[in-house]
Amino acid sequence: MSEAERDLKEIMKECPELRLLMSDYLDDLLDEQTRARIDAHVAVCPNCPTLFRAMLANYNAVKASSAEDVPDSARRQLYERLKQMARELD
Amino acid sequence: MGEEAETEQQLVAAARRGDTEALLSLVVRHERAVYGLGMRLLGDRDLAEEVLQETFARALAGLRSFRGDAAFGSWLYRIAANVAGDLIRKRARQRLHESPLDPSLDDDESSTSWEERWRDPSYRVDPEAVTLRLERLEWLDAALDRLPEAQRMTVLLHDALGLKVTEIASATGVPLPTAKARLRRGRMALVTIVDDMGYEERTRNGVAGEEMEQ
Fold first, then answer.
1. DSSP sequence for B183-196
2. Are the CB atoms for B134 and A61 separated by under 8 Å?
3. d(CA B101, CA B192)
4. How crowded is residue B46: how many other Cβ atoms within 10 Å of its Cβ?
5. What is the ipTM of this complex?
6. Distance between CA atoms of B127 and B131, rounded to whole angstroms?
7. Do B161 and A65 touch (CB under 8 A)?
8. B107-136: pLDDT as tens digits
9. With contacts defined as CB-CB under 8 Å, which chain B residues touch A12?
10. Which residues on B lie below 8 Å from A89 (Cβ)?
11. CA–CA separation, B164 vs B97, rounded Å?
12. How far is A26 from A52, CA to CA, in rounded Å?
């Protein structure tokens, strides 16, 4: 095994543990030291960056999906119902 | 942001005093988010409309008890999560009645196979393909549909609607570490699900291609 292969093997020992922290990394919940550890790992690991980027893409897609146009008929029904309720509450 | 929050507080105060115009302004601000949550969680227009109607009806009925400790949106989305949760459970009971082994009832424990893959350092995905796929809402919905319900709810409340994990824990009646774990596991599972969908699609196309060649 070459030195480079040995180095890579050492780097990849960290993958399982650091992958569990990706979600907290995304939400900026980690202390500076742990964050720096992940940054250093991702800079050299061949696989973890693919998971990070995909998780970020997922996050952005879910965020963008938050709102959806309400059908007109449902909106009219809702407004009428709420107006009626408000009158009754008065 | 501050100005917007203040205006919303004023609208809530006016709505509590019985101002119907203020009430409808609040509805206009939040109806798309509530309906969107219903669509993502239940994947059905009729049920999403039910979430919309019932959420605002409950919110209006409970408006006097809203103390303003949290943002109005967070309070409202917690109600929406409860309404949607009730509908999901009702539907699950119906499905269970029809087919006792329905896999949609899987709980948090159903994620073990993807977790094993994440523990393998050689595991990787194709982030470009995942990103492209997620540009289409139907892919995202199909992926969300494969998540266990509790994870789907947690990911949507947090990432789509911006609720804090503490608020989600309280809304879903679980301890904070459980809500945190659901968010982490849900996000990790989604990555694998969307990546696998690409593999499934290629396999299908490959088979179709071979069939066409024959």
1. HHHHHHHHHHHHHH
2. yes
3. 24
4. 9
5. 0.89
6. 6
7. no
8. 555 556 788 899 999 999 999 999 999 988
9. 121-122
10. 18, 60-61
11. 35
12. 9
